[in-house]
Every structure is written in C-alpha cells, then in structure tokens.
Amino acid sequence: MIKVLIADDHPIVRQGFKKIIEQTKDIKVTGEAANGHEVIEKARTGIYDVILLDISMPGLTGVEVLKQLRSEEIKIPVLILSVYSEEQWAVRVLKSGAAGYLTKETAADELITAIRVAATGRRYIGASLAQRLADYLDPDSGEAPHEKLSDREYTVFRLIASGKVTRQIAAELGLSISTVSTYRYRIFEKLKVSTNSELTRYAIENRLID
C-alpha cells in the first residue's frame, strides 16, 4: 500500500485529492498538512511513501519545504502540485529535487500514475514537461535572466509582475517591507529592468505569469 501525505492549505482541495485516491486499491491517504511547517513535522515523524505538496503553502513555500526536507535527508518523494503552468515553476522545482510537477488541472489518472511512479523512486515527467526539459537542456538556448533568481526572488518577482505592491507581498510572504524591497532591488539588477512595468512586460513575454 502506497501511503500518501497531502499538503495544501485549502481543506476542499485536500478532500478532492482524497476522493481521487480513494478510488484506487493500492494508494491510501494517511496524513494531511495545511502549511509548510506541518509538512516538515509530519515527514519527520510519519511513514509516507509520497508527499503531494502544494507550491503555494503559507509560511514556507512548497519549494522551501522541499529544500528543507532534502537538507534533513528526508528522502520521501515529493510531487509538487500547482495552479501555475509548467513554464512558471516546473524546471525550478525539479532542480530542487521534486519527483514531479503537476498542475491542479491534471487528470485523475495522471495523478495516480505520478504517485505510483514516484513511490518507486523514479521521477514522473509528463510529455509536455519532457519537451520543456529538453529545451532547457539545449546548450544553445542559454540561461534566461530569470533563471538566475533564487527561489524567494522568483516568488517576489512573480508577485510584483502580478501587480502586488511591496506591502501586500510582505504580508503574503510573512516578510518585512525592507526585506521585500531588498529582493526587489536584486531582481531588478538581475533582470536588467528599472520599473515594475518593465518587469511585468518581461514576465508576460516569457509566459511566467497567467
């Protein structure tokens, strides 16, 4: 029996995934978490074969949770779940050690397949994501400026590009306004932009926001 920990801050989302999983005979949800700190605590003390982890967890983001688990050598395979398209996060989370990246619009049968693949210790790579990885690994493609951003910088970058102001970003991420301002300065330097509108245009042109 494959034991799964579902981590999402929305109870209705967790319930939806549980209903999908309950239709199988070889997979069972044995734990739930509503924030990043809960995920880490449950992963330390529970026995799970796969973690389904929302990328937008409150407090610690999904990517930060993943990195913390890896730093503690907790080797439970992690499938990242997201409302964001593959272009926006997939390569980044796979580089951080995720066993796969799935959007929340993923069909039920693909989710089940991904869980089974991850439970064997392999990565689940869908067809469209495989093509994106091939493009990313192309030596002639070069590294895009946004790929030089840290995970936290990338999160702040997307929030700015989505129209959020510094105060809103600070509240959403649990950071001080001065810390967000520092991230903004670094982002502008790395992307070689000087205004929020230029940053937003960059994000749209690179399909990094919806």
Question: Can you characterise this structure?
Answer:
The protein is of the alpha/beta class and 210 residues long. The chain has two domains: 2-137, Response regulator (Rossmann fold, 3-Layer(aba) Sandwich); 145-205, Arc Repressor Mutant, subunit A. It has ten helices and five strands; from the N terminus they run βαβαβαβαβαααααα. It has helices at residues 11-21, 36-45, 62-71, 86-95, 108-119, 127-137, 151-161, 166-173, 177-191, 196-205, and strands at residues 2-7, 27-33, 50-54, 78-82, 100-103. The chain has a five-stranded parallel sheet with strand order 2-1-3-4-5, with helices on both faces. Helix 7 packs across helix 9 (177-191) and helix 8 (166-173) crosses helix 9. The model has no long low-confidence stretch (mean pLDDT 87).
